[in-house]
């Protein structure tokens, strides 16, 4: 991306200063923010004091062999002890850890920190009986039920790295992950509830186990939670019921302490840009990074806040900001099993009202879906408990930001737009709610202790007002340590682009505005080159979403004989717009021209009912590009709904 990057986003001039009362009592105040600007090792060493260490570290950072970092070298701790036991020991055992809400109405559970301690200890004892030892990998393929979190923490307690695989993934996706990380045990359930009915999980595990066996890899045990009560096939040599072995195990378990660099988990990326990568996170640095950022970005007051992160635990946001960060901080959370539209389209708002949720963290894709349905739905619920809103996963278009702010946040809640990746483990760029005056659409500034820059092809910082590549210049505590079993791919993917400078290359394009604030522009691979002009997907999509009839948009560059590449757009209309009218395509083309310029005017606009998204809700532009260039559609294994691509391809071939 170059300095020619077009600039409609920076025409957005609204800013929203922190509410005075929040700023006055914020976890990170303006003074603390300024004070953090010094030595980052000193800063992170102080942040690590948030945790309880069995043995303190001798060295904060070992970067002698880049890009392989070691943080808090020589320190020893247990992640589960930090997330659970120490809160009980501090007298907070009666505090609610989770208000769990099942999808079937009235299916609820309240789990205190004491309850969690007993459950995690039982599960840890049961896993030991199944032969799990420190260093063994355990796969978790579960719905959003409390046992999922218990399973993760039990693994962490034993030093057995977990790999959580989305419950929505196929047996193929599960099998390849089982083999890739060599999982000894799989923890699953008979099924889970989604959209009003019970869907099965166990059959996919049986299939995946058979496929893995075919490749010479045998899973030793499958531990099965009974959630729905549906029929399951059973192999006595392998399968065990959770209620048999966990419920009968002792609720006492003395935990062992592990090296700060002991592996905590492997998480596969969402696969938006290609084959998923097995990201390895370790213990001390990861827990420091997630605990600090969760406290700073969400301004959590553990005694009074009710925090809800809507992410599925099967992606990294569920790990860092539903399990490890919030639990390390002693938060009270909501955890919801089902979809936002079951049994009615106001379910999320109803949950916020019922539990008095104060901090809410979700993804732009969800916000745009609610925009599509209309504000009447959230307007029917009392959302006055909310005090802070967060966004993650993609750029939030200014239009969606304003809707979120006005309709959900009642114009009083600051919005934190958090940029980070599976690889970064922790939030890297975000406004701080008590410090930063937020701008709709901008992730704003790097977190304290983090060195982010926007650079040109030669790795030089670009001046304000220009675009380039997003890089991270210094190691950070929750950074990935490698790709599981593949150091070479780790070096190649993230460190080769700016090898001489030693920068981490994030793969995203970004721009600094005239104030130096950061705007994410989409994947570098998705940047379009139209007649020599570089155009960002995010900017054109935001222009389309700013049209009153449009709810969502995805833009790709398709090969074009005259212009090199041409802009192709796929749009979803708001329900209130009906079919958009006969001239909708021309109307939208003109709108983009007015908002950005003639060069960005899409060659083609397709009105579609749905967009292809990953299970974590990100638009898969590479598949749309295949459609726009009339190619066979590529790897769809991480797609949430396979049928979507057929719908879109049909629309294209019929010329609609
Ligand atoms: P893969 O690496 O397999 O293609 P992925 O990159 O989609 O998958 P994740 O690690 O879940 O997998 O997503 C990280 C990416 O999400 C970032 O690189 C960025 O493109 C995007 N992203 C996350 N948060 C934001 C945000 N607040 N603003 C803009 N983009 C964001
Ligand atoms: Mg990625």
Task: Describe, in short, the structure shown.
This protein is α/β, with parallel strands linked by helices and 656 residues long. The chain contains 20 helices and 30 strands. It is globular.
Which features would summarize this protein structure in a list?
single chain; 656 residues; alpha/beta; Rossmann fold; 7-stranded mixed sheet; 30 strands; binds adenosine-5'-triphosphate; binds magnesium ion
Written account of the structure:
With 656 residues, the chain is an alpha/beta fold. Among the domains are: 112-256, Rossmann fold; 531-653, ANL, C-terminal domain (GMP Synthetase, Chain A, domain 3, 2-Layer Sandwich). The protein has 20 helices and 30 strands. The strands form nine sheets. It has a seven-stranded mixed beta sheet with strand order 5-4-17-16-18-19-20, sandwiched between helices. A hairpin with a 2-residue loop joins strand 26 (528-530) and strand 27. The longest helix is centred in the N-terminal third of the chain and has 17 residues, at 113-129. The two termini are 32 Å apart. Mean pLDDT is 94; it is low at 1-8. The structure holds adenosine-5'-triphosphate and magnesium ion (MG). Magnesium ion binds next to loops.
């Amino acid at each position: 991306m170059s300095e020619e990057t077009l600039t409609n986003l920076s025409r957005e001039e609204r800013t929203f200063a922190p509410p005075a009362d929040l700023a006055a009592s914020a976890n990170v105040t303006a003074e603390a923010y300024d004070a953090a600007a010094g030595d980052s090792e000193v800063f992170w060493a102080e942040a690590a004091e948030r945790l309880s260490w069995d043995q303190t570290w001798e060295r904060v950072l070992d970067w002698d062999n880049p890009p392989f970092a070691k943080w808090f070298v020589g320190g020893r701790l247990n992640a589960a002890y930090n997330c659970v036991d120490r809160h009980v020991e501090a007298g907070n055992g009666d505090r609610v850890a989770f208000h769990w809400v099942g999808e079937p109405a009235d299916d609820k559970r309240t789990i205190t920190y004491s309850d969690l301690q007993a459950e995690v200890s039982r599960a840890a004892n049961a896993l030991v009986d199944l032969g799990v030892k420190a260093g063994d990998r355990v796969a978790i393929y579960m719905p959003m039920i409390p046992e999922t979190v218990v399973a993760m923490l039990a693994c962490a307690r034993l030093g057995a790295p977990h790999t959580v695989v989305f419950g929505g993934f196929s047996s193929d996706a599960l099998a390849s992950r089982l083999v890739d990380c060599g999982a000894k045990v799989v923890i699953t359930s008979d099924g889970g509830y989604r959209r009003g009915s019970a869907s099965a999980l166990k059959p996919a595990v049986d299939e995946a186990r058979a496929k893995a066996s075919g490749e010479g890899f045998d899973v030793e045990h499958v531990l099965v939670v009974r959630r729905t009560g549906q029929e399951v096939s059973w192999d006595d040599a392998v399968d065990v019921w959770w209620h048999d072995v966990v419920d009968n195990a002792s609720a006492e378990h003395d935990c062992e302490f592990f090296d700060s660099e002991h592996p905590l988990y492997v998480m596969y990326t969402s696969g938006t840009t290609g084959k998923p990568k097995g990201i390895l996170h370790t213990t001390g640095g990861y827990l420091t990074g997630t605990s600090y950022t969760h406290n700073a970005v969400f301004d959590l007051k553990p005694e009074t806040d009710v925090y809800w992160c809507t992410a599925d635990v099967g992606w990294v946001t569920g790990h860092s900001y539903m399990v490890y960060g919030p639990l390390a901080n002693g938060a009270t959370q909501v955890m919801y099993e089902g979809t936002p539209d079951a049994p009615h389209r106001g379910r999320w708002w109803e949950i916020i009202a019922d539990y008095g949720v104060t901090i809410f963290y979700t993804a732009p894709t969800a916000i745009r879906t609610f925009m599509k349905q209309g504000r009447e739905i959230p307007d029917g619920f009392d959302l006055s408990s909310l005090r802070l809103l967060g966004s993650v996963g993609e750029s939030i278009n200014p239009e969606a930001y304003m809707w979120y702010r006005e309709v959900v946040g009642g114009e009083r809640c600051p919005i934190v737009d958090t940029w980070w990746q599976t690889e970064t483990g922790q939030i890297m760029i975000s406004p701080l709610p008590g410090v930063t005056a937020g701008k709709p659409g901008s992730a704003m500034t790097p977190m304290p202790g983090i060195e982010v820059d926007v650079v040109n092809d030669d790795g030089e910082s670009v001046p304000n007002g220009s675009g380039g590549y997003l890089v991270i210049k210094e190691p950070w505590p929750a950074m990935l340590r490698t790709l599981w079993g593949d150091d070479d791919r780790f070096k190649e993917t993230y460190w080769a682009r700016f090898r001489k400078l030693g920068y981490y290359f994030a793969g995203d394009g970004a721009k600094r505005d005239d104030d130096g604030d950061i705007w994410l522009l989409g994947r570098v691979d998705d940047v379009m080159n139209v007649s020599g002009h570089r155009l960002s997907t995010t900017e054109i999509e935001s222009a389309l979403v700013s049209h009153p009839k449009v709810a969502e948009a995805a833009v790709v560059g398709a090969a074009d004989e005259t212009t090199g590449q041409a802009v192709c757009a796929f749009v979803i209309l708001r329900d209130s717009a009906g079919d958009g009218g006969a001239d909708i395509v021309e109307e939208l083309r003109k709108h983009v021209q007015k908002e950005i310029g003639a060069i960005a005017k899409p060659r083609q606009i397709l009105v579609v009912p749905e967009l292809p998204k990953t299970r974590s809700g990100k638009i898969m532009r590479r598949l749309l590009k295949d459609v726009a260039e009339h190619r066979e559609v590529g790897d769809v294994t991480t797609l949430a709904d396979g049928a979507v691509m057929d719908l879109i391809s049909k629309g294209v071939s019929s010329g609609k």
